[in-house]
Amino acid sequence: MSKNEKDKVLIFDTTLRDGEQSPGATMSLAQKIEIATLLDEMGVDIIEAGFPIASEGDFEAVTQVGKIIKSAKVCGLARASKLDIERCWRAVENSKNPRIHTFIGTSPLHREFQVKLSKDEVLDKVFDTVSFAKSFCDDVQWSPMDATRTESEFLVEVVKIAIQAGASTINIPDTVGYTAPKESAHIIKNLFCKIPELKDVIVSTHCHNDLGMATANSLAAVEAGARQVECTINGLGERAGNTALEEIVMALKVRKDILPYETNMITNKLIQASRLVSKVSGFPVQFNKAVVGKNAFAHESGIHQDGMLKHSGTFEIMKPEDIGLTETNLVLGKHSGRAALRKKINDLGYSLGDNQLQDFFYRFKSLADKKKEIYDDDLLALLSDTSMGEKNDFLKLIDLNVKCGTQSPQTAKATIMMDSKEYTVESIGDGPVDAVFNSIKKVFPHTAKLQHFQIHAVTEGTDAQATVSVRLEESGKIVTGQSSDTDTVVASAKAYINSLNKLILRRQKKVPKAIAN
Ligand code: KIV
Ligand code: ZN
Prior knowledge:
Number of helices: 18
Bound molecules: 3-methyl-2-oxobutanoic acid, zinc ion
């Protein structure tokens, strides 16, 4: 390895696998392809596109992503089982640069309760399954799940076996977000010290954020010798999420003085990726989220604003343009034409085909009729209502009239198209939103539970658009729908319908029985 290669940190994105595993973040095939294409354009080195044995949908997604990705390696996940590994290989085999990622729990808790194997049985299984994966694919990544809670001597033993069996990347996961930076570095250093062969493979770090230390733990692992960081856009992932890709990439860029490592990443698409993943997953980005939050570059206090006017470096450690935020203060209104709209959409990091632009233009005009000034955030809300790919219009809101006020009960009269037929129903409820949801339920009865309902004003003013998120749960399946409108009740109805349409799609997906390790 040349000095340059030694200092290169590979970015392994698992938004489509670990990110999608977060409850409610299910993505359609078209959405996965859209995200994967953007990740590839951004210079991500490895895209983990799914867990092929988990469902037909996952298998198809890994296969299709593998077929269209031009530069990045495309990886699928497999448990330590021959069935999983073969299924994974079938999904990635047609990609340009395929990788199989296989794993097994190695900590005492995982050995006893998850895999129910002794230490010796785990060692045998690792050798067998990694060798089996190697018989299909040259590029095999192996992970000891819950590595940070595994006895250090056993971790050394099991990593040695994986290397002997042919693993070319050894990933060390902090599965439950338990470690801290010093310990994260120590684990990697100890492995390098006890296993001379480790210098011939790539060591990777995969951290969860349960204690808010995922980025710090990943960077500590890099300083100790890891050269692959596993991460997700917006830190999307199970529980508190995974290491956020944008934080790692910008930390390595901004603090090159103390973190002298290169990545292949083009950073000025980070904001676009963040918005896309937020839109697709239905998970809003927290306002003060590092790097990509709405307030990450906002300066409110007088002292800060004064400093910024004199020299932006006084209170800004990175430039908004570095992550793709442009000075797009040009406000649009009802007289703006298609060209201005197209330019603005492109400035915001989106591109729409001619038909999509046409449809979007009508919706923009209808918003401009209700709202004098259209800001970037209004357009972003409207864009997130624009389906770029697979769409399910089984249920559609045609008309809505609501009677609400101080006198109860509130009533809603809704006309809904279901499977191309119109139904008009009336319902009462405890408030206008409850009345609307009850009327939708009359047309499409279901037992899904409403887990989460959130309204958020896109901009200031009483004419602001509201973005509504609705999360539903049915037999363990969780879906999130979103919609925006200047009328909060209409936005709620559309978000509810959107989540039901997603639920219908999920019901159609067949999930094969889980296969034991
Ligand atoms: O967190 C974890 O341990 C994982 C493994 C499958 C790598 O996601
Ligand atoms: Zn994980």
